[in-house]
Amino acid sequence: MTRELRRVAVIGGTRIPFCRSGTLYADLSNQDMMTAALNGLVDRYNLKGEHIDEVVGGAVVTHSRDFNLTRESVLGTKLAPSTPGVTLQQACGTSLQAALGTAAKIATGEIESGIACGSDTTSDAPIVFSKKFSKRLIDLNTKKTILDKIRVFQGLSPAELTPQPPAVKEPRTGLGMGEHCELMAQEWGITRAEQDQLAYESHKKAAAAYEEGWFDDLMVPCAGVYRDNNLRTDITLEKLATLKTAFDKSDKATLTAGNSTPLTDGASAALLASEDWAKARGLPIAAYLTYGQHWANNFPAGDGLLMAPAIAVSKMLDRAGLTLQDFDFYEIHEAFAAQVLCTLKAWEDPAYCAKHMGKNAPLGSIDRTKLNVKGSSLAVGHPFAATGARIVGNLAKLLSLNGGRGLISVCTAGGMGVAAIMEGAKAA
């Protein structure tokens, strides 16, 4: 039996302000922040006591205590406790992938409503001890007598007690995201000036968005914080030019703290539903989520770690029967300015498009005036798992006001990328 696919409505999204690691959210957990973002969504759309068919989300940096983080966060909200919560992790694509999975279930009729969410904190990152000391603690739990417990610590060296903080590095290469992106920038010939210009524009666009009240209905305060604290309204190209390179100290280096996202704490959530579910509750439909795609490349063999979304977009366009130019808005996640610029250059490169996308011609260029029009991650920050849902909520609002079609592209660790297409309800 075949079932006709239904349109997936995006009602909208909310997020808490994003804050640099170790600052205003230093005492909050992933659960605290995810709960706050979800409650913001509940309040915005009058969902108190409402049963949502599924809430899917996660975090990238977690403690062992974060047992089914999403379900526990749901239980801390005003949603009906019958609402299931499912936790997943796909690095920076977590909440966008959650949205795509939820959308697929809505489209097939398996569920009527769902929430995609994500939270991340590097302020509350797990600090672990060496494996040797950890083994001693495990052995300690098996001993019965005081004497046997004491013997467990025989030969203990101070080095065993040295804490080992988590490192955002690729296990297969030992390189961090910034180090990988630096290699990409050098491969594609992306200059420091180009990256600084993109960062400058992101901050200026986000600052203008704040001034016009754009974020007023997209953001809920948390822990007394009302505004992203990474945003620099006084940013200048001259100031950016003074920053030292961050990941490579050679003469070739181009990535700095200014044209890369900082470690960030924050959470976001987006509400998706069938049209009937939305209409029954009098909820306006901002946009429709129509296509999604994820892809992984062979970065251990030398492919650029953060280039997978460029390929994911190509494959998604083929399925949708669209060209790269058929969009009114482009939301390309600014993990690093260089990643955005490498992606744009790859789409314009005949050799890359032929080799990695099987194209006889390049995808071409985009209208830069349509790119991240309200600023993006370089300005507001990047809590890894929260970025996707932030973008979904932001794009839904853009499409609700302007109609048209929007493209989302998010790079992730592990050589993966996630992409999506959303269409305004006005044009649908």
Computed CA radius of gyration, to the nearest angstrom: 22 Å
CATH class category label of the domain at 177-213 and 290-424: Alpha Beta
Instruction: Specify the number of helices.
Output: 14
- Structural class given helices, strands, pairing? alpha/beta
Describe the structure.
With 428 residues, the protein is of the alpha/beta class. The protein has a domain at 177-213 and 290-424: Peroxisomal Thiolase, Chain A, domain 1, CATH 3.40.47. The protein is 35% helix and 16% strand. The protein contains 14 helices and ten strands. It has helices spanning 30-44, 69-75, 94-108, 131-140, 146-151, 177-188, 192-211, 237-241, 275-280, 308-320, 337-348, 350-357, 377-380, 387-402, and strands at 8-15, 19-20, 54-58, 85-87, 113-120, 264-274, 287-296, 329-332, 405-412, 416-424. Strands 1, 2, 3, 4, 5, 6, 7, 8, 9 and 10 form a ten-stranded mixed β-sheet that branches. Helix 6 packs parallel to helix 11. The longest helix is centred in the middle third of the chain and has 20 residues, at 192-211. The mean pLDDT is 95.
